[in-house]
Design goal:
This protein is of the alpha/beta class. Helix content is about 45%, strand content about 20%. The structure holds aspartic acid and magnesium ion (MG). The site of aspartic acid has 13 residues, from helix 9.
Amino acid sequence: MKFGGTSVEDAKAFRSVAEIVRSAVALRPVVVVSAIGGFTNVLLASVQKAIAGDARAATKSLDNDLGRHLTVARELLNGDSRVAFETTLAEARREIRQLHKIIAAHPVTHPPLQDEIVAYGEQLSSQLLALVLRENGAAARYVDACRCVKTDDNYGSAAPLPETANATRATLVPLLESAKVPVMGGFIGSTEKGVTTTLGRGGSDYSAAIIGAALDAREIQIWTDVTGVLTADPRIVPSAKTIPVLSYQEAAELAYFGAKILHPKTIQPAIDCRVPVRVCNSHSPSEEGTLIVAESEATAQTIKAIAHKSGITTVQVTSARMLGAYGFLRALFEVFDLHRTAVDVVTTSEVSVSLSIDDASALPELVPDLEQLGAVEVEENRAIISIVGEGLRTTPGIASRVFSVISHINVSMISVGASSVNLTFMVDEAAAADAIRRLHFVCFERQDMAEAGVEMLAEEALA
Ligand code: ASP
Ligand code: MG
């Protein structure tokens, strides 16, 4: 059970987590927790202050968030455990103070020291959560994540090493066998020499997947502040619903669109061991959330989600040189490579190629290089819409259903079949919300309405 920063942002949130964990004790959970909401950013910023030479300001900038831990402890802990945590907190501040001083004096040494400082976020939240759980009657035990997650020394985005699996089992299995609930920080690990490392931003999900895979868990639960993965962005479609089951592949396609979903790299360890991942809402724990599994069934309507991303720029390169020639695409991609610009969607015809980019900051330098290859046309303020669902490639009639709903909207760069689970196209940013609402209505709402005998209303709503 992994709890993100928003699930432990204050005393109320800690209390809900304690409740959720307590009701799952019979399933022998391992708890992995992020730093309290926002603290990682503050810790990282403090390192910058130290690098700039002001160690005192660096440490002082943490006091507000250290105080938040104290507030939780004062509200939820009694007697000895409260005193113990206050001591832990004071020690942490002292140690961080020393590290800030070292960085201020020798800024070049900072990568390992930065990880050591940032790791306090997860170390403190996990120690606090373990105490809160014990106060609530669960047999929780704090476990130093560095004993389980062994990594290389690529500070700031360290990669876990194979021995992690054994170290994790050796540390956690005896606790689980004696009915204890291990509680550990996500995001952090240590090198073979025992130096603290971090796995990269958002790394607690990754930790949860690594630990779940090592233990061959029945399920990895990612507890966050939304109920699973939704059929569309709820800011555009307020009636968006939770998707009950997704395949790993569908989830990976959706991840690009920044749907509040897991980064594909994050769940790779779960995929490798075929451990299902469930995305749950700690603010609404009784809802089922979304279960992500190796293979999900195609549903009756095939389409499971409509994802989108605005602020996209498309670039079209047209050249007669492309006709029947080889090496053109390589030359084209080399330009993007040179300017370190990631390309997302690509469509080609015999004499032109259209590409979409998310980050257009290199365009002023990119375009002249592309012009060496052909005529270049740039369109800004575009949006990618992607329809995701297992079986899309093999189900007849999907494209006609999708495009007939939005026949009044100009669509370009249609891409289908590159993966078996998605159909992607580009529209003008200004038309995206309308397109998404119509598609959502037809894919997910009309059926329900028709079943409820309100077909007429449904047609009206669409009109
Ligand atoms: N606390 C870390 C971060 O904010 C890790 C995580 O929350 O997953 O990146
Ligand atoms: Mg997070």
